[in-house]
TrEMBL record:
Enzyme Commission code: 1.1.1.100
Entry GO MF terms: 3-oxoacyl-[acyl-carrier-protein] reductase (NADPH) activity
Protein name, per record: 3-oxoacyl-[acyl-carrier protein] reductase
Species of provenance: Planomicrobium stackebrandtii
Family, per entry: Belongs to the short-chain dehydrogenases/reductases (SDR) family.
UniProt keyword annotations, A-Z: Oxidoreductase
Pfam name, any one: adh_short_C2
Family matches, as InterPro entries: NAD(P)-bd_dom_sf, SDR, SDR_fam
Length: 263
């Protein structure tokens, strides 16, 4: 299948590691021009070099961006437009917010999670849409969480703002479909990332058990019997963002190995 991605300009936010990095790599393998971002230039340099070597694609560029800062968002997309003249695909991604239940988070935590995990997606989308409308082509994929389908205990901030992200994405998808711009949300279940390792360690510390016990219990609740490989997640994102997907929009998908019981 020709995904129609070769030479498309793809921006992947928060992509120096984890699912963002895996997604950037898959786009690079398909021949896209890929721009990665994170808050650390050192991390970006290392990741860009790794993606170039693994994909054989030298069209991998980087730009520092703290997604919670509006000025940073404006600067990265101005860089992309100045360098390449277009923006075809936007992959919105951020690190997860602070873990904890209602009593563990304060107003400052709520504001920070809003800025990072919802407002940043709104700002990036607002910035790229004029270019996508002019092109009459665009794909926006918002990386969320499995909590959009089934809340996760002890993650009240994620449960709240990821749900808001789905509402935003669905509404935006309906407004821009006429311009051949498709907007979808993709939520990961448990994948082999630093974020999942962090959450497993928090659970182990709270319960006073070895982290291996937490991992074993988590895997037992996944019909596939394992944590996902980030590459498996990235392949779905690449398809949704490609020209091969010409009609699916406004959807909230979860990739989780069958672990959720919700319909």
């Amino acid at each position: 299948m020709d995904l129609g991605i070769k030479e498309k300009v793809v921006v992947v936010m928060a992509s120096s590691k984890g699912l963002g990095k895996a997604t950037a790599l898959e786009f690079a393998k398909e021949g896209a021009t890929v721009i990665i971002s994170s808050r650390s230039q050192q991390s970006l340099d290392a990741t860009a070099a790794e993606i170039k070597e693994a994909s054989g694609n030298q069209q991998v560029f980087s730009h520092v961006c703290d997604v919670s800062k509006e000025q940073d968002i404006q600067e990265i997309f101005q860089f992309v437009v100045n360098q390449f003249g277009r923006i075809d695909v936007l992959i919105n991604n951020t690190g997860g917010p602070k873990a904890g239940g209602f009593d563990a988070v304060e107003d400052a935590d709520w504001y920070k999670a809003f800025d990072q995990n919802l407002l940043s997606y709104i700002r990036t989308s607002r910035t790229v849409l004029p270019y996508m409308k002019k092109q009459q082509f665009g794909r926006i994929i918002n990386i969320s969480s499995s909590s959009t389908k089934e809340v996760i205990d002890g993650l009240i901030l994620s449960n709240t703002f990821r749900a808001g992200m789905v509402g935003f994405s669905k509404t935006l998808a309906r407004e821009v479909a006429k311009d051949n711009i498709l907007v979808n949300t993709v939520g990961p279940g448990r994948f082999g990332t630093d974020r999942v390792a962090e959450l497993d360690q928090i659970a182990a510390d709270k319960q006073g058990v070895p982290i291996e016990q937490i991992i074993q219990k988590s895997k037992a609740n996944i019909p596939a019997g394992r944590y996902g490989d980030p590459e498996e997640f990235a392949k779905v994102v690449v398809f949704l963002a490609s020209a091969a997907n010409s009609y699916l929009t406004g959807q909230s998908l979860v990739i989780e190995g069958g672990s959720l019981k919700a319909l």
